[in-house]
Known about the structure:
Elements: E1 3-8, H1 12-25, E2 29-34, E3 39-41, E4 60-62, H2 63-69, E5 73-75, E6 79-83, E7 88-91, E8 96-98, E9 101-104, E10 108-110, H3 129-144, E11 149-153, H4 160-176, E12 185-189, H5 205-216, E13 218-221, E14 226-229, E15 233-236, E16 241-243, E17 246-250, E18 253-255, H6 257-260, E19 285-287, H7 311-328, E20 344-349, E21 354-359, E22 369-373, H8 376-393
Parallel strand pairs: 1-2, 1-9, 2-5, 9-19, 11-12, 11-17, 12-13
Antiparallel strand pairs: 3-4, 6-7, 7-8, 10-18, 14-15, 15-16, 20-21, 21-22
Amino acid sequence: MAAKVLVLGGNFAGINASLLVKHELGDDVDVTVVSQSDQFVFNPSLIWLPFGKRDAEDITFPLAPMFDDHKVDFRNEEAVKIDPDANQVTTSNGTVYDYDYLIIGTGYRNKMDVIPGLAEGYANTITTLPDAMATEIAWEEFLSDPGDVVVGATQSAGCFGAAYEFLFNLSHQLKKHKIKDRVKLTYVTSEPFLGHFGIGGLPHGESLLTKFLDHEGIEAITDVSMEYVDADVVKLSDGREIPKKFAMIVPPFVGQNVVKESSLSDAGGYVKVEDTWQSTEYDNVYAAGIAAAVAVPWQTPTPTGLPKTGFPTEVMARVAAANVIHMIKGEPPEEHKEFADMKAICVMDAGNNGVMILADKMLPPRKHGVMVPGPQNHAFKIAFEKYFMWKMKHGHVKLP
């Protein structure tokens, strides 16, 4: 009888894990993907959508045809209960899925209650497709009546790259619309210094970003918590009030409720894992991406999170898939990759410029780490978007 592999989530982690297992084992495995969304979303391009540089259809594609082409059973349902003792997952319509192996790639929820006013809509965010679309509407309204702008990342946020990219693109757009001289632009972050990114920073990164922000006329406020946001100001924990007409704030990410409410979860709603990305409690359960718990290896004066999206998610999914394959073959899990030892690869876009971030390890100590500025990075990010969308839409997950 073919082994049953159930994958929760249909984005970066879910696609990679499910197709790698199916491609390797073929008819020896039945792979089912359960996802609340019926679309893949290329999240790195959400920073462009509010400025009209992308539409939703440019950065999404339907999952069902792709999975069907690769003989993976796709179910557009929301998983609401994981019972790892019974090896079962229940969905919102009452369907119960049995599994021999479970891979959890359910992604994140925005913790919108991190500060009062964020969930109430006094600031926008761009970390999900609906959020980015709502931010596009708010941006269009802002252009008709400009004022001061605050871009930032709250305490415990981990996706600082998105905040920086939006900041740089917004500054570029202000110049394009010839209103830069009418807008005071402020960047507020929980990072202990510019360019920390939640990964401890890179050589010369702070000075590079300081020069860039100075050149753009952007005031930076680091190492600070936000107390609340309302219609007119962002209130900081040190008592300062930053006036604003428009704000984009990146909140912390937390695990999905289906994980948080299971026995697999830690306090943050993430699956507790080994460096095989295997559950610490159940040998046949794996997690990848935001769904996996990764300990922050330091304490910063203002709490910061770790960036687990994008490239790290793919690495986790590949390791998890490889170990599930080993187990189905009757072998012990052999692949290991600690989060700290993953490579750091990121391209931050700045409208018509950008910065490439490369390091041999995600977290220090490192042997090599560099930030390379230049307009070539804008072109590279566009090219990568096209390549990655093609790769995922056709299920070519073995390609780099």
